Amino acid sequence: QVQLVESGGGLVQAGGSLRLSCAASGSILSIHVMGWYRQAPGKQRELVASITSGGSTNYADSVKDRFIISRDNAKNTVYLQMNSLKPEDTAVYYCKARVNYRDYWGQGTQVTVSS
């Protein structure tokens, strides 16, 4: 079994920064893509950013130039550095990872940006 545990959410003022972390643990043979999704109230879950094991990244247009995704393969951990936060970034942020060719989700962490 594989678990993803997120941390780092919270309340921040507009213009501020937060860093999310997601650590994978359990019976891990390989991790390919790791990524962050978010879901705001009344909206569908959407991709924020993803990163492959080789370091290739992909970002939603709404977060480009503000968020940076990175990973530490030795620690099976993915990070999301969020800068210049806006109230519209408020959502529950979920980590997703393809581990051993199966997709796993974290439990989610709340990010609230006040104006």
Q: How widely separated are the two ends?
A: 41 Å
Q: Give the uncertain stretches in residue-range form.
A: none
Q: What's the β-strand tally?
A: 11
**Beta-strand percentage?**
over 45%
Order of helices and strands: EEEEEEEEEEE
Please summarize the sheet with the most strands: 7 strands, mixed
Q: Portion of residues in helices? A: under 10%
Rg for CA atoms: 13 Å
Overall pLDDT confidence: 97
- Helix/strand class: mainly beta
Shape, principal axes of CA atoms = globular
The total of helices stands at: 0
Structure report:
The protein is mostly beta strands and 115 residues long. Helix content is 0%, strand content 59%. It is built from no helices and eleven strands. It has strands at residues 2-7, 10-13, 18-26, 31-39, 46-51, 57-59, 67-72, 77-82, 91-99, 102-105, 109-114. The strands form two sheets. Strands 2, 4, 5, 6, 9, 10 and 11 form a seven-stranded mixed beta sheet that branches. A four-stranded antiparallel beta sheet has the order 1-3-8-7, with no helix packed on it. A hairpin with a 2-residue loop joins strand 9 (91-99) and strand 10 (102-105). It is globular, with a radius of gyration of 13 Å. 31% of the residues are buried. The mean pLDDT is 97.
